[in-house]
Specification:
By secondary structure, this protein is an alpha/beta fold. 32% of the residues lie in helices and 20% in strands. The strands form 4 sheets. Strands 8-15-16-17-18-19-20-21 form an 8-stranded parallel beta sheet. The N terminus is likely disordered.
Length: 558
Amino acid sequence: MLTRRHFLQGSVAAAFAAKLGVVHAAANHADTIYTNGTVWTGDSRVPLTNAFAVTGERFSALGKDAAFSLKTKRTRIVDLQGAFVTPGLIDNHTHFLMGAKTLKQVNLRQAATPEQFTDIIAGRAKSLPEGEWIEGGNWDEQLWGGELPTKEWIDKVTPNHPVAVARLDLHMLLLNSAALKAAGIDKNTPTPPGGEIVRDAKGNPTGILKDQAKELVLSIIPGDTMARNIDTFKQGIQHGLRHGVTQCHIKGISWESHNIMMAMREKAHPQMRFQSYVPIQDWKKLLQQINDEGFGDQWVGWGGLKGLFDGSLGSRTALFHDAYHDDASTHGITVQDTNDLREWTQQADQHGLRVSLHAIGDEANDEALDIFEHTIKQNGKGKSARRFTIEHAQHLTKSAVPRFAQLGVIPCVQPYHAIDDGRWAVKRIGEERLTGTYAFHSLLQAGATLSFGSDWPVAPLDPVKGIEAAVLRQTIDGKNPDGWLPDEKVTVEQALQAYTINNAYAAGQQDELGSISTGKRADFVVMDNNLLTAPTGKIGSTRILQTNLSGKAHFSTL
């Protein structure tokens, strides 16, 4: 963490840089000067400063002297009064539409007993017209001891409403009998590849669908109109802006969010930036759109693809080399065929598309790294636009950690998952395999470009909570005050880098976004708490005062 001595050195650097002229070459005036702040720039030339200038949509000067050298009669002066400023915060992994929908859907996150689970569903059923689907969820069976819910928990309170509510990791759905009937799922329904229909001792579905089996019901749930989806998206945008988020990478496995963003873009730009990732098997379709329309604009960009290697730890579908500690009958599943993923990755990379592979278990991560290594050998090194990423990179073998840096693969991780899963992960994989679990520090030490996000709605769309989780690693049950696997803690500055410049790099935007640097777009966040000097226990109480994109406040309490 930076000390007061480092801050003073940063101020000296700022003054020295100002004398050298850290002013954008094209700037001859400032529209706005922000002064008297503590500004963490993410720019190695001037890591800390007290002022900056904005001209048009871009940063035009760093440091008080440089900023005021551009002052004119029309320049607006904003006194930050000591507030803390960072570059705009970027979330590397969201399911944005789903997250936005949860803001108004049933929320089971606080259900700590089966009775509370049932009561919440019952309350929702009473508020909806007969026949309307009950969706949402965010339930966590670990809160009541680990027993998976079944349709019997909710059938009596939902006789007239089909129910499909997701576990908090999005890899399991609970259906009631009405939903099972609507989807045509019964004792004779075959288990789809890459998924599981959980069954009782007689072979009847319990209501739990895992991974690819979810598609049996998701495909028949009536969708919202485009107008309603756009309205839902806008609610999600406002929610993110309140938490300092200036850009989200949307990494679902459908085109729905992509099409919504395209529709929004046609009318006016959204109030937040987005990078869209679509299913890897559709790389030809994406390439055609790029040939027709390019890679998008500053508000909505595309060019990324996502593949699914395995499932999740909570559902025991994450793929491990060894069997689960609490279920020796399985070591996880492969969601998409390995040979297909290898072929799609090579072809997509050959055409300049970005590839992300979801991998949670240690075997899945090894296999994903093998696919990227194979692609590099086939297509060659040195592609400047190449951005291979592994989504989650959650459980790693010792040999996998250095391979990220060696292959230039970006680990896109979610710090809040560590303090959530840390309550019960040892039950799934045992003590020995905890080494290499959420290995943030180890990855940084090995030279990897660490990227942070939320996986919203699996975890809160709130980078401050993510920073707190990465720095403290205190599990959400309060049982690890010194941190779970504390050797993997990172510093506040490392966490800020992972939410800013590293995430910009992950989308190929490092020349436009990610730091408060002259010439870059003026995305920045104003906070009421200096994260670099605040007691670590106070990080989570930090409030966002203002969220700015291209020099304009899109959220403000000032």
